[in-house]
Amino acid sequence: MDETRESAAAAAGAPIGTMEFAAVLSAHAARVEDELARLLPAEGGGAGEAELCAAMRYATLGGGKRLRAFLAMEVGRLCGVPEARAARAGAAVECLHAYSLVHDDMPCMDDDALRRGKPTVHVKWSEATAVLAGDGLQAMAFEILADPATHPSGDVRARLCLRLAQASGAAGMVGGQALDLGAEAAAVPLDAAGVKRLQLLKTGALIEVAAEMGAILGEVPEATVAHIRAYARALGEAFQIADDLLDVTGSEAETGKAVGKDAGAGKATFVDILGIEGARARAGELVREAAAELAFLGPQARHLESAARFTVERRS
User: What cofactor requirement does the entry state (predicted)?
Assistant: First the structure.
């Protein structure tokens, strides 16, 4: 799409193209990257402390699409949230996400040696350092949200912390990882309902709460929060289906991590259940569902609608 067509699409409120959206996503990523670089601990102190701080920064900075931070910041923008506050929420959810990746990559979990094209934390340092770096990043997420700089209202800060805890704990991301490991140990592939629940918890919960944070910061009516939550839930499911497709059809060079691991581990995915074309069709349905939840916002929600399409068109 050339510049004239892009301007016309924006004026009409139409979703923008993949390349154009990638530029929008990149701009949000740069803003939250600056925030993370400022908030994460400096690489100082004694030998052990310096290693911990270096590992935390290594795991968090310089990589990733920052989709979760984008959702927090873009929803925040739509809800009238100052950019500085929305960027802090985005940084918090990225710290939580980074912690989950550090721990998931360890030998006792998914046993991955590569993440975003770089050695994983336990490979670069040690398993002990990886555990501590993940723990530090998890604590950092809640420290950011609980700080008055995120919002002057203690009630709002408490709600942010509560929702992130719920989304990342046993009833969310951690519970999803436990389901995943349990199914792998039992060597019994999950059915469609089981796969959907696993993915809703393991991947979807954090994506959903990231978008919800922007609405919480804006103190908007609960009906608006419900629409944003439903949008992000559909987007999260589409995102995981796209990841499953990349594990089958992508390459290590594209994804920055090993591919084909789900099949090798005997894990069931929607690609197994629906086939490649069926999974692609389902992802398309979810994009349309996500867009429908944004209809009440009108043209101003075009970046969020484009985000849903981007999740299924990406190659990394």
Answer: Mg(2+)
In the numeric block, the tokens 């994009």 are attached to 287
Task: Report yes or no: 160 and 89 within 8 Å, Cβ to Cβ.
Answer: yes
C-alpha to C-alpha distance for 130 and 143, rounded to whole angstroms? 20
List pLDDT tens digits, range 73-116. 999 999 999 999 999 999 999 999 999 999 999 999 999 999 98
192-226 confidence digits (pLDDT tens): 899 999 999 999 999 999 999 999 999 999 999 99
CB 238 within 8 A of CB 312: yes
Check: CB of residue 116 under 8 Å from CB of residue 125: no
Band of the pLDDT at 15, cuts 50, 70, 90? Answer: low
Reduced to 3 states, what is the DSSP secondary structure of residue 114?
strand
Cα 87 off chain centre by? 15
Give the pLDDT of residue 254: 53
Q: Which tokens go with 221?
A: 């009516």
pLDDT of residue 262: 60
Tokens 């995915």, residue located: 269
Question: Rounded distance, CA 141 to CA 100, Å?
Answer: 12
Place of tokens 């009516």: 221
Q: Is 118 exposed, middle or buried (0-12, 13-18, 19+ CB in 10 A)?
A: middle
Identify the structural domains of the chain with CATH numbers, from first to last. 3-313 (1.10.600.10)
Containing 119, the helix (H) or strand (E) segment is strand 118-119
The residue type of 179 is: L
Whether the pTM exceeds 0.70: the reply is yes
Helices 173-186/192-199 angle, 10° precision: 140
Residue type, 35: E
